[in-house]
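worker-03 picked up job from queue 'complexes'. Input manifest follows; two sequence lines, order preserved.
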Amino acid sequence: MKGKTDHIRNFCIIAHIDHGKSTLADRLLEYTGVLSEREMKDQVLDKMDLERERGITIKAQAVRLEYKGYELNLIDTPGHVDFAYEVSRSLAACEGALLVIDASQGVEAQTLANIYLALEHDLEIIPVINKIDLPSANPDWVKEQLMDIGIDVEGAILASAKDGTGIEDILDAIIKYIPAPENTIDSPLRALVFDSIYDAYQGVIAYVRIVDGQVKPGEEIKLMSNNKVYEVDEVGVFKPDMVKTGILSSGEVGYIIAGIKDVKNCRVGDTITSAQNPASEPLPGYKKIKPMVYSGLYPTDNADYGLLNDALEKLQLNDASLTYEPETSEALGFGFRVGFLGLLHMEIIQERLEREYGLDLVVTAPSVEYLISLKDGEILEIENPADFPDVNNIEKIEEPYVKAEIFLPDEFVGQAMELCQQNRGEFKDMQYIDENRVRLVYDIPLSELITDFFDHLKSRTRGYATLDYEFIGFKESKLVKLDILISGEPVDALSIIVHADTAEAKGRSLVSRLKKLIPQQMFEVPVQAAIGNKIIARVNIKALRKNVLAKCYGGDVTRKRKLLERQKEGKKRMKMVGKVEIPQEAFMAVLQRDEDE
Amino acid sequence: MKMNRDMNNDINNDTFGLYLHIPFCQGKCRYCDFYSVNFEQALLEKYLSYLKKELLSYSILLQGKGRKVELETIYFGGGTPGLLSAEELAQVLDLISQEFSLSPLAEVSLEVNPSSLTGEKLQAYRKSGINRLSIGVQSFNDRELSFLGRRHDAREAREKIELAGRYFDNYSIDLIYAIPDQELADWERTLQQAIQLSPYHVSLYSLQIEEGTPLASSLAAGEFEETDNSLDAEMYLLARQFLRASGYEHYEISNFARNGYQSRHNRLYWEFRPYLGVGPGSHSFMGGERFWNHADLSLYMEKLNQGELPVQERIQLSREEQMAEMVFMGLRLLEGVSLTEFYKMFNVSLTEYYAREIEKLQSQGLITIGNDRISLTEKGLLLGNLVFMEFLP
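worker-03 finished. Artifact:
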């Protein structure tokens, strides 16, 4: 029958880090013969080295498994709050989810956040209690936990992705419990883009779930967010390599290639429809995601500016959420103001630039976007503290707020609340989600979250707390610009925006951190913090008086040379600001934690 | 046995120095990171037979072309070479003079600790052919000596130095400064006592906390704080002033000598000249190649048993590395590096090759050029690493 969908199942896997998501995915691929054991590289679905190393997924992936005449589409989702939107789009492409829980670790707070997300999308949840081969496994206890949070454990599967136990049961359960997608092949085409990547030969490859209708090569399609029209070159499915199919129809998961040149024109969450017979409404939930966090990226060696430009251009081809604009700093020279989804995204981009493009970078402290209303009525969007206008011209300043959700064991609630309050959080809600776990909700300025908030939260809750946040809007705040002067000269790249009430304390702690980070120079270096013309804190970095190898090391000249090479390497990675050598870490000093805390 | 081809060329053209490592101690000093194991007489004797084996191997290799190579200096370091009896030393020295041609004017140094010295032993050492002692005094302050984990006190140090002076007309003492909690006045007292004893040579080392030593663990445990480099600098300048006023020439960053008593062996290191090191963990430099032995006694012996040299690694220096090493080791000498000798060696002008580096360092007041030599200024002596690293490729 035309467009039959009852043999299709679309599902994802949700799990806490280390609970075995990737291994389970590997086993499913292996069992269904997608890949022979020999072909299996460990964890096929996580493609980037970086992803494999960090055990996180950054881009969504998809693969079609064939089993007992069914077509099972597994969509692997990114696993971090920075990519929460991408996760939500991947879930929207599925009808069900495997909920993987470590049999000895039990339900973790992050898992809860994911379960709620899955329930929001009306997904059918199949609990998989994994790692039952471990002596410490306690499946009954895990089942009780699941029942406590309202998950039906009737169909829960005991599995060990490591030794293959339960894999067949999982596949059977997917068929049995996850509903088939609706057959709407006769409706106008609507395909949900849940990821898109750029390929140098084929252009953009859109990862899609066909929700309604069908699509074939030669047809014209339209992106509903921007009304751009393209002709389809190829459609197909992932096995896991791309295989042409000639048609994709409602219920299926696959890819569309249509000569789209830029991932910015084919963003995650967008709806693809037919140009000739367009749907009247796009699929719900599309948001053009904007960067939340900005920071300045500068090559340590000014000569690498062009290289950095090229590298950012290439990374952006695959990452529509990355934005960048050239900027100039008096201290650091030519660089870029780069926008990221969050701190992890920022770290990943920085690491890729350094690793894949061999760049040595100075990264300035992350900042958020401020809305500044001037007295003359003009409104400025400022992403770089150095661009702050003269205080006398400012009418009001607004900053982005987020709704922060913290899941944690109840014994740490006091400490977490205290931390939120210290960071200007406004209490919104607190709920017990089971006997001893709590969900705390605060509205909090994003700028507070992107400094050291999460580190503090982790250490105050012995690592048990998890944090999710979403942007809720701009709110007016009493903010000031804190400048740092080194040897009497303001260093624009070190300026930060802080709340007026905490400015002095921040200034003092920042200069004392800088004192620890900036090595002694051949002359004394005063470091000052100032608001406007008022110096609020000062430290002196004493002159370096002695630095010479004394010992003979019994003729071991190689060791001497290596010590010198190490010192020289350290100097090379520093940025000359005026006559002072400043290490890269100093520009991130504001992110560091005070030792006495 | 394999060896680098150039080694012969180099040796044939030059004299060289020999370092012998004696890797035994009766206990480890808390700051020391040289290789040593606990002293046992039987093991020491066994070791000496291997050391002789290694010496013989090099003798055969170096004289493959039928020429004898002249040894200009010999240095017994450790560990604690003073654990060797005079007879044992004499046996090793006899073997050396049979197998290598030993210059009649050769400097033959032995490192000793004050606590192991007796008049009898000193006399016997002198007779065995040792003509210079390097005495590990380190301090004349009892608190500092015990902090460092030395096995003598200040009184014994003074007595033994005087005793050594009766048998030896050339000896050096080592002193350590910038010891945690040491004040400038403490250092001044140690210096005064040293000068009173009028040794021929004085080596001064600023205490460095080396990884893996007991001191490094105490530091990590917060038991003390490292001396601030500004006090370190004051101590250094005080010593320089005192010793020069007492007739010592400051001839190398860490070394002072009365006229005619510079350490000839150590000068080989600074002058970029060849030396051979034998024993575990010892280092050699020949034919532009640096190589070193396994710093592990059993591995050392096992390799020799298998008929191999106990070499752990060899590094052939590139031309740039050779130039850098000649400059940064040579700059340790206060006389600096001869521009002519550099040119002869590399056929390129030092001041042209390093024009940019030299300009920067001159403007920083760290180096000076004159009389065909490039050398450190007084400021440069204190900040030598900033100078040295500029010359690295």
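worker-03 released lock.
Chain A has five domains: 8-177, 190-274, 293-363, 371-477, 480-591.
Chain A has twelve helices and 33 strands.
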